[in-house]
Amino acid sequence: MNKFILILVCLFFLFIPTQTETLAELNQVDSYDYSTEKKGITIILHKVYVNGEVIEEIYINQHKTLNQVKREFKDWNVIEENDDEIVLLKKIDDLSPTLKSKGYIGINGKGMLNLYIGIPSGNNIIESFFQIDTNKLEVNKQKQLERGIKISTKKRYDHILNYLREYARKDT
After folding, report:
1. How far apart are CA 71 and CA 95, in angstroms?
2. Distance CA 96, CA 38 (A)
């Protein structure tokens, strides 16, 4: 029992210098004067894609004024601004990069037309459109939709949605 207590006491004293050094280092970091450093403007860009996905990009720019940023992003809408930050929004007439690489249109077991990230399954729906009258739809088109139809361009996305609107159920 005495050996166990001796080992604990030795371990305790081994860790004290390390903790003291860490506290000293923290005190040096806390004493840094941030007021001498130029903060810069935080630029927050919101890109809103046709499929509804919003991608946010954040930049801290220490070299430009608010007016310079507005001129650089003149085709963006200013959503919010103050001395330290500006939030800009732009609607992009295209599919999001995620949808271009992983997007599928398909139907679930109830005939609901959905937009999926990845091959259609129950848990990766990102948008639902309308219910398809599968009785009117050709069998091979229905099977294609059950497997999922890959979409990688806005043109294909629009074409498939417009084509399938003809088969939308009227009673929903």
Report:
1. 26
2. 35
The tally of CA atoms less than 13 A away on the side-chain side of residue 158 is 7
Looking only at the bridges linking them, the beta strands covering 85-92 and 41-49 are: parallel
Edge-to-edge order in the sheet of strand 112-117: 125-131, 112-117, 103-107, 149-150
pTM, two decimals, is 0.64
Instruction: Answer whether residue 105 shows pLDDT above 60.
Output: yes
Pair of tokens at residue 110: 């109830």
Long-range interactions of 68-71: CB distance < 8 A, separation 24+: 69/41, 69/43
Residue 95 near residue 151 (C-beta atoms within 8 A)? yes
pLDDT digits (tens, 9 = 90+) for 39-76: 678 999 999 999 889 999 998 887 888 888 899 999 99
* DSSP-based three-state secondary structure for 150: strand
Return the bridge partners of 47, or none: 55, 90
pLDDT value of residue 48: 95
The count of other CB atoms within 10 Å of the CB of residue 96 is: 21
